[in-house]
Design a protein that fits this description.
The complex is a heterodimer of chains A (811) and B (396). Chain A is of the alpha/beta class. In chain A, 65% of the residues lie in helices and 9% in strands. Classes of the chains: A alpha/beta (811), B alpha/beta (396).
Chain lengths: 811, 396
């Protein structure tokens, strides 16, 4: 008996471990194929949860019809072992399967279709596996109640926490993705085989056999991984040679070579290109970075202390050193990126990295600017566009304010974003106007220049941000700089007057009407006034639409516009749905929220008829319990995503801490489920479920009310503690909820596995809705507060439903 | 008892009805909420606001086009470009600016430029047309091709309804050009073929006023309309985007052959030609193909045609394709010079030696450029100041 219980526990733990590792591996691999934006991440999570949910529902149905749990478990474990590597190989073939042209990005439709189709088999199998474990546990204990579901839930949650930890600390460094999933798949099958060993199976032989198979798998997966990777890159960039791949915890890194040029990709996005080590004129190769560096450095008369955020490897760092600087602090998040790039960098960049004036700081720039005790003359932000929530943190007013506090009175901050020369479409104009207005909300003086790359120069001092080609040229030439790819005359080309007038006019005037974010930039005059005239006129312009054109940590609209821009570029001639989301109003959720209430009301009225009472009451109880599980899925996922997001913005992105906070959620979940199992299941009731929902609503509301106070905290340790505790509490409530809900549902449904399957499916479906909406719509458009209110709102609806159904369960 | 039952049934019926009503009501509510999210067309009505000075969104002033033939059942075939779109009644061609209205073809790209600005001629790029001067660049919405690497996709690959356009009849364009004191009008940035009638009308006026007419185009146009336009043009820069038909089909959305025909036709008309070739890594940078292209140019158009190899930067749909290595541009330039072309440039690498003009006979630097800035010109009356060799182009 003891052995059997521990085997059930082992399988559930391993399932949790497997699913967490597979989820991370799938996400990383798919992001290499997709463009790594918030929408693709949301879609991948949503598809994952929808399929696991369907799997658990199907598993419930199958396990009723087919009594031999052992066979089912072995079957699904074997299925997983085969499906997982095949899925990864297929994911890398997405481009050729969908006939996506080389070097183009996948559209929203491509991403939705491929994440839904490719993850289906593995996710369904994992969902089924969950229900089979519940069944196994129940068979072993000969019990008819829902305790098996609760125990499976606890063990799986613990396994997930363990899996996440194992992957980031060990597996990511030692194994390639195919080896990782092969290994956990084999382990799962092994444990299932041991637990459900057929009669007469010799144990030592079995262990040896397993070790042999595992070793063989690891050996086979190495060349298979390389082969699949190479094919993927051949489809993506034909005739480029894939010279190196590295697994960084921040995303897979790939180095490709074309002629004498090396390009570096992280999570499928081009980070930078450089001339190779033997190239004689790297300045020509990296002309964008070279121009950016000189444009920024000539903004200040005597730039001595410089902060460079990102981008140093692309050529910026070496050029900054050609100015009379005494110290450069260069903040680069990913140490592995630098290590991966080092062998291929031109000698000028290598020399710059070794220069005693340069201090390379590995870590999150948000965290750095919060804690740094330094004063700078120039801050250069050389980051990719705000395409994700994490990148968007370098474009918010809070970050600009933090950076501004590190600038001397004449200090200048310079950053860039991609653009089009005409700024005609809504998305591109909205995004770039948002960057401008956000900067302007912090700095008194901001000027803009550029065409395909827009440059923003900001300072508190009126004299400093300058697009005066003559002045900048003079400063540049006085410093007697010798470089490839740049000369004093370039200022005249980069700052050509009519172009400067036009982009300044569009960006300064856009975003000043209530519906500017929907209509795009307004009409431009044939020849806009000079920059000096425009600056003078700006005070008389209508105020900026703060909700739509100021990018803040708590309403990060910047990455939504970048998403729209990506959709503009990739979608093949269909109308975009994203601008429609911008039109959405908060009350738009009311009909969906009212639906279960109206249904319940109808059931309440109907149940007054005595003849139909039992049936309707059962139906009502089911509706109430299932809605509760659904809203729990919605609100916990909403809280989890939002809390992680706020933590990254307010505290800074530290991989281990973000991982730890996720682990706290899982621990809370496991504790909650254990507590429920130990103390509550004996007297579970609808009322108890109501209290749990009330707690959830209360926590969400408290978060909404307390958030401004939390954000204002300055102690990092206290911040971390608070976020960890709040996340663990959300996990705890979720953990308590599941077993109690499963028990209540089993009471009306009677079939234990099927109930567990349905309840688990419903919770995952709720989580799926949240995953798709939280970071793509709710947070950027309505703000972080809205997401807490939404979480509270859905819990309250569940409460009302449960109140209406109270007393029906045991009647 | 019976009475109670009846009551119950009645109640049951009414409750069922209530339930039913509730369902329908909810469905209605949900739909109305969804309606809030459905994208709404923000297009303005297609009416001309009389003499409006400022631009307005979606402003079009449809003008009949002569370049079409009638087909059966009310359809027309546009004869302006090699696409030869068959356009059903009230539909548009693939360029989005030519519409079948009552069995006649109308252009919606007339008098409504989206882009009007004065620029150095070097930006277009014209390197042999009055170096160091400025021209008035002009473009409307719409394009008859669909390049994956379009730089102005938010202006060219859209319908006129989606962008703001200035209300500028040809006469106003001329007045504006004169007011800004430019010496030339350049039909550029978008695709001038799609606003052919507008371009032709302005070109006539500009020529009468003594200005140069420059066209920067993909050259995707039918011979007859081109023939009628050429007498008004002084210089044409044709984007020869590649030299492989498959590249044109896949990445540009057209055919190569008509572009080559255009080049020959412009050459035969004696109009100055420059050619721009955007060198896109892996897509059109096979050096042997480039050499074939250069030989074709030298043989068919003559070795004096200036050729610009432009650097590709990650753009539009090719956002994840690395920029052209400068070494590839150097190699292409070398091949072109070996193939016998005498004026081969590197574009969009400001400061590169390939931006300068060297006299093919005496080898002296005759035009010194840094980006759009011309530092020195040693060309007098179209001749090299050092050896007197004729330099092709418009230097007067």
């Amino acid at each position: 008996m003891t052995r059997k219980i521990s085997s059930g526990l082992c399988i559930a733990l391993l399932l949790g471990l497997t699913s967490q590792i597979v989820q991370v591996v799938f996400l990383r691999d798919l992001l290499m194929v997709f463009h790594g934006n918030e929408l693709s991440i949301g879609l991948i999570f949503a598809a994952w949860m929808a399929w696991v949910g369907l799997g658990s529902y199907l598993g419930g149905t199958i396990s009723i019809r087919y009594a031999r749990t052992g066979v089912l478990l072995r079957g699904s474990a074997l299925g997983l072992l085969i499906t997982l590597p095949v899925t990864i190989v297929l994911m890398r073939e997405v481009r050729s399967l969908l006939t996506v042209p080389p070097a183009t990005q996948l559209s929203l439709v491509d991403i939705a279709v491929s994440s839904i189709v490719f993850m289906a088999p593995a996710c369904i199998l994992m969902g089924m596996h969950f229900v089979y474990i519940v069944r196994l546990w129940r068979d072993e204990e000969q019990s008819e109640d829902a305790s098996a579901a609760g125990k499976t839930y606890v063990s799986e949650a613990l396994g997930s926490a363990l899996g996440g930890l194992l992957f980031t600390t060990v597996l990511v460094h030692l194994l390639n993705p195919l080896q990782a999933v092969g290994l956990v798949g084999a382990l799962l099958l092994f444990v299932v085989m041991i637990a459900q060993r057929p009669q007469g199976f010799a144990r030592p032989l079995f262990y040896i056999g397993f070790l042999g198979i595992a070793a063989l798998l690891l050996a086979l997966m190495a060349p298979l991984d390389h082969w699949a990777h190479t094919r993927q890159w051949q489809h993506f960039l034909p005739r480029h040679e894939l010279v190196d791949t590295q697994s960084s915890r921040y995303g897979d890194i790939a180095v490709v070579q074309y002629a004498d040029q090396f390009s570096f990709y992280q999570s499928g996005q081009l980070v930078f290109s450089t001339a190779g080590a033997d190239e004689l004129h790297p300045g020509w190769e990296a002309q964008d970075s070279v121009s950016f560096a000189h444009m920024a450095m000539t903004q200040h008369e005597e730039p001595e202390r410089v902060l460079l955020v990102g981008g140093g490897l692309g050529g910026t760092l070496g050029e900054i050193l050609k100015h009379p600087v005494t110290a450069i602090d260069y903040v680069e998040l990913d140490e592995l990126l630098l290590e991966a790039a080092r062998p291929y960098l031109p000698s000028s960049t290598k020399k710059a990295l070794a220069d005693p004036r340069v201090q390379v700081l590995h870590g999150d720039a948000r965290l750095y600017v919060k804690t740094a005790d330094a004063q700078y003359d120039v801050i250069l932000i050389d980051m990719p566009d705000p395409a994700t929530a994490v990148l968007n943190r370098y474009y918010t007013k809070e970050f600009f304010a933090e950076a501004a506090s590190l600038l001397g009175p004449e200090g200048v901050l310079v950053l860039h974003s991609s653009s089009t020369p005409q700024l005609q479409r809504t998305a591109v104009a909205n995004r770039n106007a948002t960057v401008y207005h956000t900067l302007r909300s912090v700095f008194d003086h901001v000027v803009v220049a550029g065409d395909r790359i827009m440059l923003y120069i900001a300072s508190q001092d009126a004299e400093h941000p300058s697009v005066d080609a003559v002045l900048l040229r003079r400063r540049y030439e006085e410093r007697e700089i010798v470089t490839d790819g740049f000369a004093g005359s370039h200022f005249h080309t980069l700052l050509e007057d009519t172009g400067v007038r036009r982009v300044n006019w569009v960006i300064r005037n856009h975003g000043r009407t209530p519906d500017a974010h929907l209509t795009g930039p307004g009409p431009q005059p044939l020849l806009p006034g000079s920059l000096a005239e425009q600056i003078e006129e700006e005070a008389g312009l209508a105020p900026v639409n703060q909700d739509r054109f100021i990018n803040s940590d708590l309403r990060p609209i910047g990455y939504f516009y970048t998403l729209m821009l990506w959709d503009d570029i990739t979608r093949p001639f269909h109308q975009s749905v994203l601008p429609g989301l911008l039109r959405a109003q908060p009350w738009g959720v009311l009909p969906a929220a009212a639906l279960p209430l109206v249904l319940m009301l109808a059931i309440c009225l109907g149940s007054r008829i005595r003849r139909r009472q039992p049936l309707l009451r059962r139906l009502g109880t089911r509706l109430a319990v299932l809605t509760t599980v659904l809203t729990t899925g919605i609100s916990t996922m909403m809280l989890q995503i939002t809390l992680l997001f706020v933590f990254q913005s307010v505290y800074g992105f530290v991989y281990e801490l973000v991982g730890l906070i996720t682990a706290f959620f899982m621990l809370g979940l496991a504790c909650g489920a254990w507590l429920a199992h130990r103390f509550l299941l004996r007297r579970y009731s609808i009322t108890m479920l109501t209290y749990i929902q009330l707690m959830m609503a209360a926590v969400s509301m408290l978060l909404w009310l307390g958030l401004p106070a939390i954000v204002a905290l300055h102690s990092p340790a206290l911040l971390f503690f608070l976020f960890a505790m709040v996340t663990a509490t959300a996990g705890l409530i979720n953990g308590v909820d599941f077993p109690v809900a499963a028990a209540c549902y089993t009471d009306v449904h009677r079939q234990s596995e099927k109930s567990a399957g349905v309840v688990y499916a419903m919770e995952l479906f709720g989580a799926c809705i949240s995953a798709a909406l939280a970071s793509t719509v709710v947070v950027p458009i309505f703000g972080v507060g809205a997401s807490f209110v939404l979480a509270a709102g859905v819990s309250i609806i569940a409460c009302i439903l449960l109140l209406m159904a109270r007393g029906w369960l045991h009647a | 008892m019976r009475k109670q039952e009846n009551n119950g049934r009645n109640q049951g019926m009414s409750r069922r009805a209530l339930l039913d009503l509730g369902w329908k009501g909810m469905a209605g509510l949900c739909l109305s909420a969804l309606a809030g999210c459905v994208p709404q067309q923000t297009a303005e009505p297609e009416t001309k606001t009389a003499l409006a000075q400022g631009p307005s969104k979606g402003f079009v002033a449809p003008v009949p086009s002569p370049w079409y033939s009638k087909l059966s059942r009310g359809a027309v075939r546009c004869e302006l470009c090699p696409n030869q779109c068959t356009i059903e009644p009230d539909k548009r061609g693939s360029c989005q600016v030519r519409e079948n209205k009552e069995e006649s073809l109308y252009t919606l790209a007339y008098g409504n430029p989206v882009l009007v600005r004065d620029d150095p001629v070097e930006r277009n790029p014209f390197f042999h047309v009055r170096p160091g001067t400025r021209s008035l660049s002009l473009s409307t919405a719409g394009c008859n091709l669909a390049c994956r690497f379009c730089e102005v996709w938010d202006m060219a690959l859209v319908a006129p309804e989606d962008v703001y356009a200035h209300d500028m009849p040809p006469q106003r364009v001329l007045e504006h050009a004169q007011a800004t004191e430019v010496g030339a009008v350049c039909y550029s940035f978008g695709e001038p073929v799609v606003f052919y009638e507008y371009m032709a009308a302005i070109a006539r006026l500009a020529k009468e006023a003594g200005m140069l007419n420059l066209m920067q185009t993909a050259g995707y146009v039918q011979p007859q309309p081109l023939a009628e336009l050429l007498p008004y043009l002084d210089a044409v820069n044709v984007d020869l985007k590649g030299f492989e038909p498959s590249f044109y089909r896949e990445a540009v959305g057209g055919e190569l052959e008509p572009v080559l025909q255009t080049l020959k036709q412009v050459r035969d008309a004696g109009v100055h030609i420059e050619i721009t070739n955007l060198l896109i890594p892996t897509l059109n940078d096979d050096m042997d193909v480039i050499e074939d292209m250069c030989r074709w140019i030298a043989d068919e158009l003559g070795p004096d045609v200036p050729l610009h190899f432009a650097r590709f930067y990650p753009l539009y749909k090719l956002l994840d394709l690395p920029r052209t290595p400068v070494s590839a541009l150097d190699k292409a330039r070398q091949r072109a010079l070996q193939a016998g072309l005498r004026y081969v440039y590197v574009a969009r690498v400001p400061g590169h030696e390939g931006e300068d003009t060297f006299c093919p006979d005496c080898g002296e630097l005759i035009i010194d450029r840094e980006g759009f800035v011309v530092d020195a010109i040693h060309v007098e009356d179209g001749r090299c100041r050092f050896c007197g060799t004729d330099i092709p182009g418009c230097f007067a």
